[in-house]
Amino acid sequence: MPTTTLQIPTPDGPADAFAAFPDGGGRHPGVLMYPDAFGIRPVIHEMAQELASHGYYVLVPNYLHRDGATPVVEIPSYIGGEERETVVARVMPLIMAHTREQSLTDAEAFLGFLAARPEVEPGPVGVTGYCFGGLLAVRAAAAHPERVAAVAAFHAPVAADGPETFERLTAKAHFGHAAGDVTPEALEELDLALKAAGVDHTSEIYPDTQHGFTMADTYAFDAAGLRRHWERLLPLLRTALTSS
């Protein structure tokens, strides 16, 4: 799949990004993809290209653009052991400093930029994210219900902002949780909050997975979990973006 590098204007300066899209021209449903906390790197390019191969224009922004262009933090080719501890120690202060207000400002800019691309079909888009990026995806969908028809988040703290965020969600949703992140009791509590808010959703624990299971360049990678992720994400997007 072709890719292109981009600069997205935001009130706090340009955010670097890349887009993946099908060969052959034409217009395609848009998807905003938020990376995990480790940011844009080869595995994120591969995942965006895989999604694009199913007929989507996929925009992947650097949401830590206030801290610098990609790579904001140097990432080893494999994130495990001592390397992981070093990377986490560098990344976590940036994540903790990223405010809800900044994420909402960015969501406005990212969604507006995506909608204006000539390769993107008019109408609502999908938003997906991983780890902290999953929380940003939920925030974007809740803040812009008229623009987002589908939202998905994987090994993500989707309930971190409280149930009032779910009350603003109108998008179809799927949340795929790592077994190491969520207990069955916590999943039931989350499901009750989503039902109370009227969210059309599925939410499940992926068996035998750890936080970060979709990322093939980390110690937590689980091939079965990644396959399950595609088996949930692709029908969600196809249903929501076709019917919207």
Question: What are the salient characteristics of this protein?
Answer:
single chain; 244 residues; alpha/beta; 8-stranded mixed sheet; globular
For the termini, the CA-CA separation is 25 Å
Poorly predicted tracts of residues: none
The main pleated sheet reads as:
8 strands, mixed
Q: How much beta, percentage-wise? A: 15-25%
Oligomer: single chain
| Molecular shape | globular
> Helix proportion of residues, in percent?
25-40%
Radius of gyration: 17 Å
Return the structural class.
Answer: alpha/beta
Mean residue pLDDT:
97
Q: What strand line-up does the widest sheet have? A: 1-2-4-3-5-6-7-8
Instruction: Count helical runs.
Output: 7
What's the total number of strands?
Answer: 8
In N-to-C order, the SSE pattern is EEEHEHHEHEHEHEH
